[in-house]
Fold:
Amino acid sequence: YPLDLFEEGSVTNMFTSIVGNVFGFKALSALRLEDLRIPPAYSKTFQGPPHGIQVERDKLNKYGRPLLGCTIKPKLGLSAKNYGRAVYECLRGGLDFTKDDENVNSQPFMRWRDRFLFCAEAIYKAQAETGEIKGHYLNATAGTCEEMIKRAVFARELGVPIVMHDYLTGGFTANTSLSYYCRDNGLLLHIHRAMHAVIDRQKNHGMHFRVLAKALRMSGGDHIHSGTVVGKLEGEREMTLGFVDLLRDDYI
Structure:
């Protein structure tokens, strides 16, 4: 495709142009986008990750080892206070991070502001007792971009190091907006890939996850779920490790 056909810095426009209509052609029974080769002249119009690996390690003052974290379970049903207590116990027990699950947003049993406050209290209490920098991935995903940014602003005011976003269900435009805010305000950004299997799991239709991973690098995120070689979710070892390498390459 000629570069003049694409708006600079817009993942939304790129996908609208490449896959927006062709998958609906009646002449096609199935179609799969396996990969994209993006020229540097276009990739350089994107901001990319808000910070990246080295900045995150510098902020946490943790080097030479993987960062260890967990997701709070049960994912839904806890009150904000009990949720914060679970965060504190995990961080006090030795974890570097805890995180919200992808569908923890602002439900009636635990509104987002209450969750943010109790999690921040848990972080500071664990930090004071361990002498280490701790964090919790506060899910800022919301129904509108304005509400999402409002949650990110509140997280920054609390002084927490990181927020989180569901970039596929939230949308590329919302994700890029949040990524710009995080870079400008010193927040790390964790990305959850909820809904990816709807797009990438069928072998004869949809898009390969490597395409979604490249899109995330352009839209912006400091780290993303790339799959696991063990556990309950699908994913082959070699392919999962390939995603990790792809996300760390110097080029897209």
Strands lie at 32-33, 69-71, 97-99, 135-139, 162-166, 188-192, 206-207, 223-224.
